[in-house]
# Entry
Amino acid sequence: MSDNDDKTEDPTGKRLADARKKGQIPRSRELNTFVILMASATMLLTQGGTIGNGLLKIMRTTFRLSRAAIFDPDSITLYLKQAMIDTVMLLAPFMAVMVVVAIVTPISMGGWVFSWEAIAFNPSKMNPIAGIARIFAIRGLVELFKALLKILLVFAVAVALYRSFIGELLSLGGESPIHSIGHALDIIGTCILLLSSSLILVVMIDVPYQLWDHSKNMKMSKQEIKDENKDAEGSPEVKGRQRRMQMETAQRRMMEEVPKADVIVTNPSHYAVALKYDQNSNSAPKLVAKGVDLIAAQIRNAAIGSGVPLVASPPLARALYYSTELDREIPQGLYLAVAQILAYVYQLKAAQKNDWRAPLPPENINVPDEFKQD
# Structure
């Protein structure tokens, strides 16, 4: 089974965006050629008389030279320069319309896109083996069919136009220059219009084919979609490693806050919660570190090493652990219980400072029922 047989899924937004960056959008050269030819034929039919009269006026001005101007090199240069300027100004509207049509037509089908990758040198495009493979691919066969169809259509219409207008073309020599130029431009415009109209059949084949071919090339396999999602979101291994690194960083930062805490409320062995209270602010005490089992032991060891008091209160330790996130103030329902702990800590510090008798730890600390954890 080929790779294309596996590509059954619609393209993702990222796939389409990447394709546009590379210039891979649906384009129809036949549509561009058809519209440009039709526009040029329409301009010749509608503006042919104006263009013919303008050209005749330029020729009259340029070729009617006095004897003095003919023998003056500077005058010849000025006449030629003026003739070129007049010709450019006369044909400028026609050329402007052609430029606009040449730009708007491709945009109408695939939108505007400019990609350096599309015009960059690609050695693989010069590979003769790959070129032969492209010739015998479906696209190559379609291009061959379109070329043969264009030749047949243009040849048939050209023969019909030749038989229809040969008499008028031969009679142009008997007309005055004023009438012959305008008449010739009308014939040319009509012939281009009819020849261009014959290509509409090729356009009707090419545009749907280009849209279908682009859609087919953009198809993705289920594995490609999975790989794209994995690249966008990251592989599970990378995400797991990132989570571990984030947890380690958060834990390290948390342990750095333990020496700054005012008290460590313990279980006393399974839970440990570090609290910090700023008496100069109006905020409630804040939980700066918490942990269970191994992390709780690390918190206790860091507190002992830094001289932070440890107070055993199993119900309060569990309540604080489950109800308060890191760097958050304790809930209002635990204000009274924490206040008892902080009051004991302040009394203990005062006793140590003044060599007083150490106070007894608080007993029967009341924890509201909604905060109790079994």
